[in-house]
């Protein structure tokens, strides 16, 4: 699997060339840029062009982008509502769509090819209306992303609305052939289980978010620090028709000293080989 590092690991810091160089030294062949304004300000032409210039002269690939979860610089702590594509209020759904489109426009200069999106928040429920909102959002974002050379991926979360079974229902019933899946292994471990999630989503999986937990909450631990059966998970992924990219998505608040990060990243990639 292609080794990719999510910049989620550095979420508390402004994303700058030094962090990209750290990713490259650690064995990553690409990065998934986490679009949070305090980290990567996709609304700032200066910030976008700074990173675009670095990628243009280095081998590290801007593989994908994770869509914004909040529209502010405080991850919602200041009271801003989440970016929620299936919010019951139409105005909030429109705001969420507009925020994601702002982030997508960075692809005009930073040539990432995939955009990972969340459908809602962890307490959103499944209903015909949720499916309608999700379908509308995916159709619209897929059409907006296509001319930019970007393919939209939807991620399984821990909500009832985004179980692997419900995601595949949305994609198949709405004939969303232009949308694929980012399988989050940590979320799948909480429910319904990694093996079952891989079985349900199957060939729609084009990348996986790699992190660990103890099966109860989303901890974003290093692989092996939780209770995921990694040999079994990797064996199941090897049975897929096309090998997905492995995006290491580690928590930014685990307290690892900066000096140990390259070694920990490299060991994690080796575990996935």
TrEMBL record:
Reply yes or no: does the keyword Isomerase apply: yes
The Xylose isomerase-like TIM barrel domain covers which part of the protein?
20-256
Stored InterPro entries:
IolE/XylAMocC-like, Xyl_isomerase-like_sf, Xyl_isomerase-like_TIM-brl
Keyword annotations for this protein, in alphabetical order, are: Isomerase
List, in alphabetical order, the Gene Ontology terms for molecular function in this entry. Answer: isomerase activity
| Domain of life per record | Bacteria
Pfam family, any one: AP_endonuc_2
Put simply, this protein is called Sugar phosphate isomerase/epimerase
């Amino acid at each position: 699997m292609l080794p990719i590092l999510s910049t989620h690991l550095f979420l508390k810091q402004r994303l700058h060339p030094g962090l990209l160089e750290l990713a490259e030294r650690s064995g990553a062949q690409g990065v998934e840029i986490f679009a949070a304004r305090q980290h990567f300000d996709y609304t700032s032409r200066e910030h976008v062009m700074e990173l675009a210039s670095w990628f243009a002269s280095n081998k590290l690939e801007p593989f994908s982008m994770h869509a914004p979860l909040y529209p502010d610089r405080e991850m919602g702590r200041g009271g801003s509502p989440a970016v929620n594509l299936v919010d019951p209020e139409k105005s909030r759904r429109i705001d969420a769509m507009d925020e994601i489109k702002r982030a997508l426009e960075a692809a005009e200069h930073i040539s990432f090819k995939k955009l990972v999106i969340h459908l809602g928040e962890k307490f959103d429920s499944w209903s015909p209306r949720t499916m309608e909102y999700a379908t509308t959002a995916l159709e619209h974002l897929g059409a907006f992303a296509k001319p930019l050379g970007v393919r939209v991926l939807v991620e399984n979360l821990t909500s009832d609305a985004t179980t692997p079974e419900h995601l595949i229902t949305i994609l198949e019933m709405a004939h969303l052939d232009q949308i694929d899946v980012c399988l989050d292994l940590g979320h799948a471990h909480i429910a319904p289980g990694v093996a079952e999630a891989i079985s349900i989503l199957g060939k729609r999986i084009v990348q996986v978010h790699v992190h660990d937990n103890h099966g109860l909450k989303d901890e974003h631990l290093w692989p092996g620090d939780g209770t995921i059966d990694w040999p079994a998970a990797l064996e199941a992924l090897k049975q897929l028709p096309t090998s997905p990219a492995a995006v290491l998505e580690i928590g930014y608040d685990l307290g690892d000293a900066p000096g140990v990060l390259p070694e920990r990243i490299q060991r994690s990639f080796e575990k996935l080989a």
